[in-house]
Amino acid sequence: MRTLQIAALAALVAAPVAAQTAAPTPFNGFFAGVQGGWQQDRLKLTVTNAGLTSSATESKSGLLYGGQVGYDFKLSPQIVLGGEASVTGRTGSDSFDDGLGGTYSLKAGRTFNASARLGYLVSPNGLVYARGGYSNARFNLDSSAGRFSEDRDGYLAGVGYEQYLSRNISARIEYDYSRYGSEDLTGLVSGVGSTSRLKYERHQVAAGVNVRF
Fold first, then answer.
1. pLDDT of amino acid 20
2. Mean pLDDT by 10-residue block, N- to C-terminus, for the chain (213 residues)?
3. Which residues, other chains included, contact 22 with Cβ-Cβ below 8 Å and sequence gap of 6+?
4. Across the chain, how many H-helices and E-strands are there?
5. What angle do CA 203, 130, 107 make, to 5 degrees?
6. Global model pTM greater than 0.85
7. Is residue 16 within a helix (H) or strand (E), and if so which, with residue range?
8. Nearby residues of 186 by Cβ (< 8 Å), 6 or more positions away
9. Is residue 37 left, alpha or beta, with left meaning phi > 0 and alpha meaning psi from -120 to 50?
10. Which of 73, 109, 177, 210 can pair with 31 through a Cys bridge, CB separation 3.0 to 4.6 Å?
11. With contact defined as beta carbons under 8 Å apart, do 90 and 66 qualify?
């Protein structure tokens, strides 16, 4: 009888310890992390000045950096649905001319993203996924007429792969495309009757590390 009592007590003590040390279910719960990589901003500026129209197209690259937080939920043994919010930035600025004598400098500012992803587990700790959602990018465009700043809404779409490296750490590689449409920029070009229109899109390849909770 005493042996049974000791065994029962040992089981009660061991249960909470085992629960604390048990590995969490992969891709199920909160996470937070950092990311970095390559970002290319592509823009097309169409300017009309003194009855003449010209377009300038530029593609410039820089270093991408930022962070993310989110939550994953396993819908089934192999399907994962998740949501994520991120803030990113890019180094450098882009200088170009419009072919009509105007010169410009564009600097990409912060970007907010809110997206959902749907993934498929190709192994117990490896996830292939697709992502889509909302993006808001800030840019500053300088010309001889002054500085034009705008927060532009758009969409984000991407694909990636994420792999657990340890009990609470995962790493990922991801490609994203963002498009922010075309919009008139009033006041960018000086002169009566002058107009300008900017089309803005983006490509990114980023690696990230997440801490899983």
1. 46
2. 42 43 80 97 81 79 96 96 97 76 81 98 97 94 76 96 97 97 73 76 97 96
3. none
4. 1, 9
5. 20
6. no
7. helix 2-21
8. none
9. left
10. 210
11. no
